[in-house]
Amino acid sequence: MDQFDVFVSYASVDRAVVRPFVERLRADGFRVWFDEQRMAGGRPAMQQLADGIENSAHLVACLTDAYLQRAWTGFELQVSRYLDPAGRSGRTIPVLFERLTGPVPAEIRFLALCDLTDDATYDLEYRKIVGSITRPVPSASPEPLQDACVAPFQHLDEPAVALFKTHQAVSALLRHQDGTGGPTLEKLVHSGEVPPHLRAPLATVQAYARGTEDDAVITIRSVAPALSALMMLAQWALPGETPDPWTEVFDSLPDNGDGTKAISGTTFTVRGPQLGRTGLGPRYAGHDLLRGEPVSVHLVGLPEDRDEAFFAEIARFSRIANAAVVSPVAAGPVSVDGKRRCLYVIMPTIDGDSAQDLVRRDGPLPARAAHEVCLGIARALRAFHEAQPPIVHGDVTPANVVVGRHGAVRVLCIAREMADVPVDDVTGTAASRVDSFLFGSPEHRSGQPPTPRTDLFALSAVLHFLLTGEYPTADDVAASPLRHCATAAEACAVLERHVADLPAGSRLTAVRRRSRIPVPRPVTADGLMLVHSVEVQARQAWPLADDRVLVWELGSDTLAVLDGDDLGWRDDRPVPVRRSVVGRRPRRRRRVGRRRAVLLRSRRGGRAPARRHRRRPRVRR
C-alpha cells in the first residue's frame, strides 16, 4: 500500500481553488493523496478514501462553506480526528480557503487554523503548513478480527467513525480464513460462490463503499444497515459468537404440552419450527383458539419505546382490504415471567413462500413469472396509494412478498418500523434492515420520508432481483421497464402488457408447480390409488364442472377457481368476500327458524369492516 505525507480533504466544488495548493505541495517534494489523481476506476470509492486517510501522515481539511455542508468531507474529517483524537501527532491540519459564514466544526475548534484567504500572508501561512508535516507515516498494527468487528459499535455516537471502522472490519473479514482451511470470503466473492445468506450483507457494504454523493447524510440511522451487514458477516466468520436470538425467545414461551407454545394473555398458540423469515422477523404456524382457525405468527424485535409507533402502523395497514394484501389481524407484546421479550403480529395464514425464499431456493424466476409477481405487487401498491387517505408501504422487498401455492401474490404489511430501528437498540432485526436498504430509493436511504415513488423504485428493484437473483444498483433500476411509471396504476398497465407478450410456459403457476415436493400416492385396501390431489387451505370449497374447484380462501377471504394444480381465476379486486346469515323465518310454535347461509360480496368499495377481527357469524336458534 502506497504511503503519503498529506491527504487533501476538500469539497468537489472547490477543486479549482484547492488545486494550486496541491501542485505547490507536490513541487516541494511531498507525496499528496488528491482524489483527482488517486481515485482509480473499478474500486469502491469509500474504500479508496478510507485507505488514503489511514496511509497518510496528515489530513489537510480545506475549510469552506461547501466543505462544512458535505457529508463525505465530514466523514474524512471525523476519521482523521479518530486516528489522532488528542491532536498530539498533528495529523489533522485545518486550513481556511475562504471566510466561513458558520462556526468551525467543534471537533477541530481546539486546533490552530492556517489561513490562506489573504494573498499578502499566503506564503507565510503556507510555510506554517509545510512545517507541520512530518514525513514518517504512523504505522498501526492490525486489530484481532473479533476486536475489529466489535469496534464500530463502540463509536455509535460518531457515525462517520463507525462507518470507517465497519470498512476496516469488513476488509479483515474478507481476508479471514477459518480453522478448516477453506477459502476466504474474498475468494468466494471473486468465484461467485458466496453462500446465499451472505449475498445481501455483502451487497450492502459494497453499496456503501460505492457511494460518495455530496448530498448523502451520515447519521447512525443511515449507517445502521452497514452495521447490520457487518453483524451478519461476523456471525459467519466467527460461528458460535452470536447465536440466533429468536431461538431463545421461542424456547422461553410457555409450553402447552401438545407441541405448541402459548402467547401469554391471548388465545393464540404457535408451533415450531420457523417457516421462514419476512421483513417482520421469523414466521411460525399458529392457531387462533377463539376462532378455531390457523394463523401466521410473526415475532418482531423492536425496542419498547417504539411500540406506540408500531401499533399505529398496525392500525393504518389493517384498514386495507384487498386480496393482494396480507393485513394484520392482531398485535401485542410477548411477555415471559413479567418481562417483555418482543412483539407478536398475527396475520392470516400464509400458504406459500416469500419471493426471496423462492429465488434463493430455485434461482432467478423465468421472465413471465417474475413479471407476474411484480404485477401482484403493483396491484397491492395501487390499493395502498388509492386509499383515503393514501398509504405508502415504504418497505417493498422480496422478503415481504408472499407467493402462494397456486401462484397468488400478496404483499405483507408492517415492516417499515423494522427498517428504522437503530442498530444498538435490539438484536434480531439485521436482515430486515439490510433488505430495506438494498431495495430503498436514494431519497429513502438518506432519511427522507417515503413517498409513492419510494414504493415504485422498490418495485423496479424487486423486478431486477427476481429476474437475475442479484441485488440491484441504481443503474439497474434506471434501466427497468418501470422507470417511467409515475403511479402504481401505470406500473400495472406496463406489467400487464409484458405478461401478455411473454411465453405462457413460464407463467408463475407453472413455476410453483415444479417447486412443490411430490406427495406419496397411498393405495387403499380395495387396491384404489390416489391419482391426484391438491392441498388447499380454505374455509370451504365447492366442486365445479371439468374437475375445477371453487375455493373460498382462508387467508385472504376471497374466491378462487382451481383447475387441477393451476390457479384458473382469482377475485383479486379490492372486494373481500364475507359470510353472513340472512332470511330467518319467524318462529311458529316450537319450530326452529330456517337458516340460509349465503356468500355476499361487499359493495362498499372494498372498505374493510371497522373491527380488528373478522368474527364467525352467530346463528341464532
Automatic annotation (TrEMBL):
GO molecular function: ATP binding; protein kinase activity
Species, as recorded: Lentzea guizhouensis
UniProt keyword Iron, yes or no: no
PANTHER family: SERINE/THREONINE-PROTEIN KINASE SAMKA-RELATED-RELATED (PTHR45832), SERINE_THREONINE-PROTEIN KINASE SAMKA-RELATED (PTHR45832:SF22)
One Pfam entry name: TIR_2
InterPro entries per the UniProt record, alphabetical: Kinase-like_dom_sf (IPR011009), PAK3-like (IPR051931), Prot_kinase_dom (IPR000719), TIR_dom (IPR000157), Toll_tir_struct_dom_sf (IPR035897), Tyr_kinase_AS (IPR008266)
UniProt domain TIR: residue ranges: 2-133
Keywords, ordered alphabetically: ATP-binding, Nucleotide-binding
All residue ranges annotated as the Protein kinase domain in the record: 269-535
UniProt entry tagged with the keyword NADP: no
Protein name: Protein kinase domain-containing protein
Region annotation (Disordered) ranges: 601-621
Family from the record: Belongs to the protein kinase superfamily. STE Ser/Thr protein kinase family. STE20 subfamily.
GO biological process per UniProt: signal transduction
